[in-house]
Design goal:
The protein has two helices and ten strands, in the order αββαββββββββ. 16% of the residues lie in helices and 32% in strands. The protein starts with 5 loop residues before the first helix and ends with a strand. A hairpin with a 2-residue loop joins strand 6 and strand 7. It is an alpha+beta fold and 163 residues long.
């Protein structure tokens, strides 16, 4: 029989969380063996800060056209706030890490106000050590960039808006 206690496990997990923060890591996974049939597997993950906005907060007029007076105000505000619902939204085709330039310190592929052509690389998503160039689905002007360089993205997450 092993001699570890739940308190020791809690202290171990706390130490892992501290190690995660101290070394600016996003994930840490450890398996601790106590005996033949006794082990502890721990996975500590730091979630990215998620910023939300209130429906009552006014949004800049440059990002959307005003809703018709006959539309329900709550439905219009919800549609405006969700960039994924914008007709010019470019969404992530995969889970990975976004890079705005070909290499660190290089000129970004796009900037707000830049004109892009259909098929032009607008950013790169790294997934499983593979750099995937993401092309512009249509020609137009970059109105908003919704991700930061080096940020993780989920499948279907809005990346930018081209109008």
């Amino acid at each position: 029989m092993s001699k570890h206690t739940p308190d020791a496990d809690v202290a171990f997990i706390s130490a892992l969380a501290e190690l995660l923060n101290k070394n600016d890591l996003t994930e840490l996974s450890v398996k601790r063996e106590y005996g033949e049939d006794d082990s502890l597997e721990v996975r500590v993950v730091k979630q990215a800060n998620i910023v939300t906005t209130s429906v009552a907060a006014p949004a800049p007029a440059q990002y959307y056209a005003p809703a018709p007076a006959a539309a329900a105000p709550a439905a219009a505000a919800a549609a405006i706030e969700d960039p994924a619902q914008h007709p010019g939204a470019v969404t992530s085709p995969m889970v990975g890490t976004v890079y705005m330039a070909a290499e660190p310190g290089a000129t970004p592929f796009i900037t707000i106000g830049a004109t892009v052509t259909e098929g032009q690389t607008v950013l790169i998503i790294e997934a499983m050590k593979t750099m995937n160039h993401i092309p512009a689905p249509k020609s137009g002007t970059v109105k908003r960039i919704l991700v930061d360089d080096g940020a993780p993205v989920e499948y279907g997450a809005p990346l930018l808006i081209i109008e």
